Amino acid sequence: MSVPAFGTPEPAQPAPVCPRHPDRVSYVRCQRCGRPACPECQRPAAVGVQCVDCVREQARTVPRTQTVLGGTVRGGRPVVTLTIIALCVGSWLLQLVTGGEWTQQLAFAPFIGEVEPYRFLTAAFLHSTGVFHILFNMYALWITGPFLEQMLGRVRFVALYVLAALGGSVGVLLLADPATQSWYTAVVGASGAVFGLFGAILLVLRRLGRNATQILVLIGINVAIGFIPGTNIAWQAHLGGLAVGLILGAGYAYAPKARRTVWSVGVTVLVAVALVALTVLKYSSVAPGYVAF
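Request: output the structure for the sequence above.
Response:
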């Protein structure tokens, strides 16, 4: 057996490269799998760094923590609430820059809802051009939305908000008289959806054993304001959204744990079907001349 001569250098070892980016040399290794990780693939760990693959694998194996009502506990920002606020603010800015054209295309009025049903929902993303209307609704959404989004989970929170918004428009429709100006008056605002959140958070707080007095007072004050002459507030939308929020809040908050998904889906579908049925019944009871341009 031949022996290397004294002083002969060892063969050079290849430089370690990142498995995800073979063109990048990295002497930093993942503390979990030991593979090299380039700066783009490094993630801070309790000790040293881990590669993105190990972080992703670890996230899959960690059990998700749920709230008492079945919502997934998530860190970070309330994504759904912030998205709704962004949509409302963006829509309000379009109302200002288009000189009312955006409002005319999306606002809801009973006489036009049958031929353009999308207005039942789009009106909830519009507001009057005065700043106080949108400020109040967005503030109310901000103080209730993140809590409900966390407790119920994103899917049920979206269902609650959308159906409460629809419930507000349906409330306006049901209480409008085709023989009066109320049939042709356009309404805008997220108030119906916000009142739906008020109703839901009231039931959620009671389910959790927390004091709901402040929410009750807030609901009472805002309902009363809608009946003050000259306020130009669609109290019908408030009542419609509140009714939807109370029903969904009860269904989501008091669903048996073993059948929570079935109950949640069931009450959501039931409310959606009821809103459609009430809308169809109202329009079918009105003479055709009242629902056309």
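The longest helix spans residues 260-284.
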